[in-house]
Write a structure and sequence with these properties.
355 residues; alpha/beta; Rossmann fold; Arc Repressor Mutant, subunit A; four-stranded antiparallel beta sheet
Length: 355
């Protein structure tokens, strides 16, 4: 049920905002969609690969047009991770996080915190980007929706996306788009809305949701969490030990992120630059790709590959683990055995006589 609190302060709603939103949001015409058959796959057409906002060591993160999830127990550093993530998208890089394009726009929609705290976090992002903390920036917006009801939050979210055309939306509090996160139909409605918004606006919508309270259960809460994991293309788990916050990608439908990421919180309350925390079994992969003829075998009959194509032929050559296949590609690039150009085409490095 909706939490109708009686202790919150009365607020004044600027209804002109809703007029702008109503004008900005196009009505979905199902009859027109059916007539166009724009939901039908046409194999004569080219469907572009996912466009990622960020990369870590050549592996993409935050695909535009899709939904991502960030999960963790309470007070584990999810907000700090989001702060670093947004700073990387806006500023070009943040440690191991690097942007794939230029001049990206970001919208933060916070449904949990008051305006003072949302503004404080927004100023942290400005500080990380080297921007004045008391001025707005045209590529970054934040809204605080704690004082609004569920229907208003959904309407404002849709309107702000239509008005601002962000490349990345951070939805900090997806649960507040639901009256009851245990309600299956309502959870489905919320994810249907987010799926449509991400696809129609070609934006990445990154949703933050708590894990279940039990230490042995790392699943996201409620039916909403189940629907979110069904619809998202990437899921990241945030954990904290002492002062070190660790991020691990736990779900990927495309190119898995092999390495964990780590950062700390500095004395001034700001996140340090994100670094890669290597997994221990990477050494065996590096030994494999260092073999003299390992890479040459894939380029005898074909001179270049996309990352997906090379991944496929590695799997066909006998690799059993999809994650390891991607890790081999990344290790080959890091070792200089492979070369990748600006169009993300991979070739055998020609400057070495023996690979």
């Amino acid at each position: 049920m909706e939490n109708n609190r009686t202790d919150r302060q009365p607020r004044t709603v600027d209804f002109s905002l809703f007029d702008q939103i109503e004008t900005a949001v196009p009505a979905y015409d199902l009859d027109k969609a059916i007539q166009k058959r724009d939901y039908r796959i046409d194999l004569t057409q080219h469907y572009a690969d996912a466009e990622y906002l960020l990369t870590v060591d050549g592996i993409g993160m935050l695909a535009k047009g899709d939904i991502q999830a960030v999960k963790g127990k309470a007070k584990q550093g999810k907000t700090f991770f989001i702060t670093a993530l947004v700073a990387a998208v806006l500023n070009g890089k943040f440690g191991a996080l690097k942007v794939s394009g230029e001049d990206y726009r970001v919208l933060i929609v916070d449904t949990e915190q008051n305006m003072k705290n949302v503004a404080r976090n927004a100023r942290k992002i400005h500080r990380l980007c080297g921007w004045p903390e008391n001025e707005n920036h045209p590529r970054f917006s934040a809204v605080a929706l704690r004082g609004y009801n569920t229907d208003e939050r959904r309407e404002i979210l849709e309107g702000e996306i239509a008005l601002l055309k962000p490349d990345l939306v951070i939805l900090d509090g997806i649960k507040d788009l639901c009256r009851n996160i245990m309600d299956n139909p309502e959870s489905t409605d919320v994810l249907d809305l987010l799926s449509r918004l991400s696809q129609d606006n070609n934006t990445a919508i990154c949703c933050i949701l708590h894990e279940n309270k039990s230490s042995a259960d790392s699943n996201m809460r409620g039916h909403l969490g189940t629907e979110l994991i069904n619809k998202c293309t990437e899921e990241y788990q945030v954990t904290k030990k002492d002062n070190v916050i660790t991020i691990e990608q736990t779900v990927s439908r495309d190119a898995p992120l092999y390495d964990k990421l780590e950062f700390t919180i500095e004395e001034d309350g700001m996140p340090s630059e994100i670094a890669i925390a290597m997994k221990t079994h990477k050494n065996s992969i590096q030994k494999t790709i260092a073999k003299t003829d390992y890479w040459r075998q894939f380029f005898i009959n074909q001179s270049s590959y996309t990352r997906k194509e090379l991944h496929r032929v590695i799997m066909e050559s006998g690799e059993k683990n999809r994650t390891n296949a991607y890790a081999k590609i990344r290790a080959g690039l890091n070792e200089g055995k492979l070369t990748i150009d600006e169009k993300q085409i991979i070739t055998l490095t020609q400057k070495e006589d023996s690979i």
